[in-house]
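Sequence in, structure out. Go.
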Amino acid sequence: MDRVFLHVDMDAFFASVEQHDNPVLRGKSVVVGSPADQRGVVAAASYEARKFGIHSAMPSGEATRRCPDVIFVRPRMKRYQEVSQQVFQIFEHFTPLVEPLSVDEAFLDVTGSEKLFGSGVEIGEQIRRTIREKTGLTASVGVAPNKFLAKLASDMDKPDGLTLVPFSREAIVDFLAPLSVGRIWGVGAVTQQHLEADGIRTIGDLQQVGLATLVQTVGEHSAGHLRRLAYGEDDREIVTEHEEKSISKEHTFAKDVMSRDVLDGVLLSLIDEVGCTLREKQKFATVVRLKLRWQGFKTITRQRRLEVPCCDAFGLRHAAMALLSKDPISQPVRLIGVGVSGLCERPSEQLSLFDDAPQDREKRETLSRSVDALQEKFGRAAIGRASGQR
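Output:
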């Protein structure tokens, strides 16, 4: 029996939520992100803004240059999460086999749902209709026999479209042949340039080129992978749970700074946010990482492995500040970020030579969680660090 996969992708999600919630923004060029005078980047752009070539990760200054009338809106992640939860509840009404890719897109295996809800196309249309009714937003859907083809198809009739990929091998090969090699999931700009330099511009070209030639262009591993995708072959299953590998926060300064006091204050605020998220997820970190971007966009990272997995604010602050203190700040800083990785469940009670007693760790964790609860109830400004506390 043929497998039936859907890829559902919300259309310009963040920007569409803002336009839905504020009718004044509808039909206008909207960018979610910090405005140009705060040196931010585009997190999302409405379709009206995209007509000017504005896209995510573009510097806000460039977005303003391309469209002087663009309207900047601050991100509201809590609101986007709320809408995302509504959308995923709709997915789960049709199948339990849902693989999130982000807050606004997912793979669904609806093979076992066709007897209840109809064909893959009919399920896709029902999902689009229900999303529109429940949220006021639109989504685009790809229907195909595997994940790669479903994701490719969902982008072919945006916004608010549905594309069905053929299910026979011969028809799939013909369907893919005229498309640019850049449409293959995982082929970035650099790989595309290498392929096109060797005359491989379409997926049809990729289907015809000899494997030895392809190996010389992209390497042995990538050559086999690209060849399989060029023929529409993808045997990946739905993965319903993902283990989060890291948590991080960053801050871009409006003006480059060298003040150690300013950097200390921002870093402590960031690591507190990271720690709060870590505790919410009931995880412990084994690595703390610092990121600094200088005035000329040169970026460095430093990391420190913890002797004992940690989630309390005190241990995380100490590790972050130690990384920042490692070398003097010799030039203006544009961005500072901090993150934790190597996440794990509750650590064992075995002590290292440098660790304090488990009961002391538990006290710090309990205090940190108590502060989290108070800040959740009264706001982050309600409880702060004592003067000079590191």
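Check: Residues 1-165 form a domain with the Alpha-Beta Plaits fold (CATH 3.30.70.270). Residues 260-280 form the longest helix (21 residues).
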